[in-house]
Every structure is written in C-alpha cells, then in structure tokens.
Amino acid sequence: GLEWVSKQLAGLELDSKPAPSELPGKGELVCASWDGEWYRAKVLGRTKADDGTPLARLHFIDYGNADLATLDSMRPMDAALSSMEPLAKECRLACLKCPDAEHDFGADAAGFFRELVWGKELVAKVEYREGKTQFVTLFDGSGSAGLSANSAMLREGLARVNTRQRDSRLSELVTKLQADEE
User: Fold this and answer.
1) How many CA atoms lie within 13 A of 70 on its CB side?
2) Radius of gyration over alpha carbons of the chain, in Å?
3) Kind of pairing between the strands at 74-76 and 122-130
4) Helix (H), strand (E) at residue 72
5) pLDDT at position 144, please?
6) Helix residue ranges per DSSP H, the chain
7) Measuring CA to CA, which residue among 174, 124, 130 is closest to residue 149?
8) 159 near 108, Cβ under 8 Å?
9) How far apart are CA 156 and CA 150, in angstroms?
10) In the sheet where 37-48 sits, what is the strand order?
11) Which residue ranges in the chain fall short of pLDDT 70?
12) How far from 173 is each of 66, 105, 122, 143, 155, CA to CA, in Å?
C-alpha cells in the first residue's frame, strides 16, 4: 500500500497546486509536505506559533508520526487517496505498563525503547486488540532469537507487567513477562 500511496502523491504534482486559504478543520484529511516529500495526514487540531502564525497539528496516517504544519505546506486530499485506509496502526506493547513521558523514568523508557526498535526491521505478534489498538510483542526481524522488546523493557526496569490482564489466553505470556520483570 505504501508504494501505491507514494506513487499517487508524486503524480498529483502538489508543489504546483495552491495551498488552502484557511486551516482545515479537525479530522480533515490533507496532503502535507514534510522534509520535501508529500504524505497523507489527518488534522488533529489547530494552534499558533510564537509569532502568531496559524498551524495545524497533523498525524501522518501512513507512518504514525505527528508534526505541526503551516498552510503553505498543506494541500487538499485527492478522493482516491482519502478512500484508502491509513497504513499506520496504533500498537502498544502487550501486557505492559510503561511510564508516560512526563512521569519519572518516562524519558528513560522512551529512549531505551527507541534504541531497541528505531530503524530496525521488526516482527510484531498481535496478542490482542482493544478497539482499534493492537497490543503486540515486538521481535527483531533479523531472525535472531533475542529477547522481545517487551521482555527487554521489563528487564531494564522501565516497564511493569500489567497484572490486570485476565484473559486466560494470555496467561502463558503474562507468566513469562513476570519472570522477566523479576
């Protein structure tokens, strides 16, 4: 899907099209330029820069990252592109509680997780779903039989096992993760 989306965006010649005259509303899909390339994005809200310039808070729906954008870096979304499902899916580490960024050790946990996964090929095993969120165990995709990212976070002391998981299908996973936590 990503290759198709990229080709469609490139074929639209968005650099030559006019920017919208006003910021799109919350929930609208747009094409947004980031680092010289065009991507699909959803407007999360509006804000202003320190100098008063209006900005849109965007979620890039095919990659999962977020950023702020000015009017001149956005274009209306093509109908064919807006009908395709987002390619990025929200995932969380299965059976774990990790500290939020603003809590003690939150920055440490985020930094360690980034070291574990950033720029690496990974395999995600979906353990369960809650709504649209998938809860996964992450493994190195190189084929090595190393620890999962879930286990590594526990062994480093930067996450805790979510003991509120009562699904009997997860009891084996929870038991293994509790051993890693100890």
Assistant:
1) 6
2) 20
3) unpaired
4) none
5) 63
6) 2-11, 79-83, 106-117, 149-155, 171-181
7) 124
8) no
9) 10
10) 66-69, 54-60, 37-48, 29-34, 74-76
11) 143-145, 165-166
12) 32, 25, 19, 20, 15
pLDDT of residue 74: 96
Name all contacts of 7-16 with Cβ < 8 Å and 24+ positions apart: 8/78, 8/80, 8/81, 9/37, 9/38, 9/39, 9/40, 9/81, 10/38, 12/38, 12/75, 12/78, 14/38, 14/75
How many residues can be counted in the chain? Answer: 182
Contacts 24+ apart (CB under 8 A), 134-138: 134/89, 134/90, 134/91, 134/92, 135/91, 135/92, 135/93, 135/94, 135/95, 136/91, 136/92, 136/93, 136/94, 137/93, 137/94, 137/173, 138/93
Which tokens belong to 162?
Answer: 């979510």
State both tokens at 13.
């010649």
